[in-house]
Write a structure and sequence with these properties.
Shape: globular
Helix content: 40-55%
Structural class: mainly alpha
Number of domains: 2
Strand order of the largest sheet: 2-5-4
Number of strands: 5
Number of helices: 8
CATH architecture of the largest domain: 3-Layer(bab) Sandwich
Radius of gyration: 22 Å
Length: 226
């Protein structure tokens, strides 16, 4: 009985130490983020070659996520392949990825003061290949919902940074985008429910498509004034 109590105490202390870790990454390398996940737990073995991933930045908050979900989140949008086989996780740089060369010119200024920032550094992150085909319309909207959830997470991270920095002007502007994401996720869920209801019914699919064709685009308020 004493041994059981000791094991419980040790396990509880271990869990508390994990919850206390900083799992928010703001530009650290993918290699660093994966090493952090690997070292903070013993359930999963995370395999990767650090040198290949040192130049890939990570911007994500992994608090509360399982290890597989955390790995998928930090690898999303980066030129890497992530495979999960049981308790083994493999991350490999995608050698097929060919970065695009973009020539830029101009200046960087503070959005609030409009003052030029002479020593500012602009960093362009890699953009992964966009999927253009799905097994079904339902699968497309399911992936759309997952994408909207990711966008929501990115916007929430910006809001958290603005709140931490007491940047009230940015917080005021970001609030609209937060509300908009609530609507976007709900819209995707409605589409999923609709296509699940008519799945396998050609006439139902036809009528749903006809109904959706009547919708008109309304520019969101921040874009309407531009």
């Amino acid at each position: 009985m004493k041994r059981l109590v000791i094991h419980i105490i040790i396990y509880t202390c271990f869990c508390l130490s994990l919850s206390a870790r900083d799992l928010t990454f703001r530009g650290e390398s993918l290699a660093y983020a994966l090493a952090t996940l690997r070292d903070m737990q013993t359930e999963y073995n995370i395999n990767f070659i650090a040198n290949d991933l040192e130049t890939l930045p990570v911007h994500a908050d992994l608090a509360g996520l399982s290890v597989p979900k955390a790995v998928k989140l930090i690898c999303s949008g980066l030129p890497v392949k992530a495979k999960i086989r049981g308790k083994e996780i493999f991350i490999q740089y995608d050698k097929r990825y060919k970065p695009r060369t973009i020539k830029l010119s101009g200046v960087v200024c503070d959005a609030r003061t409009r003052e030029y920032l002479m020593d500012a550094k602009v960093e362009l992150l890699p953009i992964a290949e966009v999927k253009t085909s799905w097994d079904s319309v339902l699968d497309m909207f399911k992936q759309t919902l997952e994408h909207e959830k990711k966008v929501t997470g990115l916007i929430n991270n910006i809001a958290a940074i603005a709140n931490e920095d007491r940047d009230y002007a940015s917080i005021n502007r970001i609030t609209w985008f937060i509300d908009e994401q609530v609507e976007e996720e709900e819209s995707a869920r409605e589409m999923i429910a609709a296509f699940e209801a008519v799945e396998g019914n050609k006439y139902g699919m036809y009528m749903l498509d006809k109904e959706l064709a009547t919708r008109t685009y309304v520019a969101p308020s921040p874009l309407a004034a531009e």
